[in-house]
Automatic annotation (TrEMBL):
PANTHER family: ISOCHORISMATASE HYDROLASE, PEROXYUREIDOACRYLATE/UREIDOACRYLATE AMIDOHYDROLASE-RELATED. It comes from the Bacteria. This is Isochorismatase-like domain-containing protein. SUPFAM superfamilies: Isochorismatase-like hydrolases (SSF52499). Residues 5-147 form the Isochorismatase-like domain. The keyword Chaperone does not apply. One of its GO terms (molecular function) is hydrolase activity. It comes from Gemmata massiliana. InterPro entries: Isochorismatase-like_dom, Isochorismatase-like_hydrls, Isochorismatase-like_sf. Keywords: Hydrolase. Pfam families: Isochorismatase.
Amino acid sequence: MPKRALIVIDIQNDYFPGGKWTLSGMDAAADNAAKVLDAARSAADLVVHIRHEFPTAGAPFFIPGSPGAEIHAKVRPLPSEPVVLKHQINSFRETNLKDVLDRHGITDVVICGAMSHMCVDAATRASSDLGYACTVVHDACASRDLEFNGVTVPAAQVHAAFMSALQFGYAKSVSTEQHLAGK
């Protein structure tokens, strides 16, 4: 029987309005992540929180020891839930995340958080590459406008592009409603 874990990635204060790196739709994504988190706790699934800190105080956001680097209150970890500290985009790189998942016999991961185009993307691809069956709860993730070669790409399009790529080859993509309904 599959064993499932919820990985909540980087839902930290700096991504919210008033933070150092505000994401588009972060409040709504966090509200959905909180629903997914409540369901995981009710199902007795393993919950792993990922918290990103840049290694230096000169970082643009997630400065070590700052309030902005703290996990947001909407998805605050319980004392029994592991929190993996990372300094890279990929939640598996130079962390104990794989060890935590393997120690609990996890076969399936559900992923939500931020940013869709960076840390969620990297963790989903790595999870799949490591053999975990992956589900991304797309409306429990957030992104921001990006710029490339003088072209601004709106956050909704950035998010859609990354979710479609993950769905194509790495993960099942579902809404919060679908996830809570077991679809």
